[in-house]
Amino acid sequence: MPIIGFYFWQAGRKKKSLWLALNLFCVFLIYFYLRTFVAKIPLTKPELSPIAAASFSQRLLTVPYILFSYLRLIFFPLNLSIARHWVVRQISDIRFYAALPAVIIFFVWLFWQLKKFNLKIPKHQANLGKFFCCWLVISLALVLNLFPLDMTITERWLYFPMLGMLGIMGMLGIEKLGKGRLVFGLIVFLFAGRTFLRTLDWQNGLILYGRDIKINPEAFDLQNNYGVELIRNNKIDEAKAHFEKSIELSPDWWTNYSNLGVIYQRKGDLVKAREFYQKAIANGNYYLAYENLAGLLLKTENPEQTITFLDTALKKFPFNQFLRKVLIIALTRKTDFVLAEKEASWLYRLSPTEENRLLYEMVLKKRKL
Fold it and tell me: For the chain, how far is it from start to end, CA to CA, in angstroms?
């Protein structure tokens, strides 16, 4: 919407632009209220990724290489990956002092070419060039990690800025298109081919994460996600190594600990499994860790201990059906059929599935015995 407002401003429709700005502000206020007071999602996230944990000065030092990386992806899309994690921490880092002049030279050249082009065209077309420049600058600014994000760069964040760049390059290439149709067609063919080859990586998670992890072995989320896919393919030992690597890279996360707990539970080491589930809960109150630990307690502990744990868990996740089912089973084993029937009835009203109906009937049957 800010880009649309800028377009109307450039077109001389300032009242329309101000009206859009007012609407944008109202939308932001509604979003802020729903996020903060209804969904209770904090504005700041845990500093899990290296870029999020970096200081503001370090993130500023990383900006030139982020810009350089995005430009490389636009014009030379080799070694694509869904997640990249790195930080430039010192001025002496080659990624800073090599990328900075390269980025400056490119943008000076780009805007100089655009300025020369604007002198040859009507004013309303020149305004279109300014519009695409605004599009490019605003959309790129959002993904430079000036405000810390989940990762340093990722290809999907480039989709919107790329439209601004394509608009600029399209304007600059119009007058030269007639002279270079063959070259233009070859470029389009090469980029289309690269896009098709990338789609082959998305056949399934095992292929995608397995390929991308070779490019970014230090990506804690890729290590975890690849481990999950290995579990689904019954490659338990391989998955364990990737979860351990993910924990090494991001010891404050929770998903990797919970997944490693699943590995130990499948191997029969229930003590280790319980430790990792508890660590996942301590790190981030991860709902799957609560579910995994509840299921483990149901198998290994007496009903009273399971119920005590579930009382705490259900205060955090009152509508979690799995936790409710475990509670009903534990109450039934404790022979507290009155409370078990009450919980089973509430669960069936919440979600009237066949499984919940059968659970409710099972409790009623046991109560009559």
Answer: 65
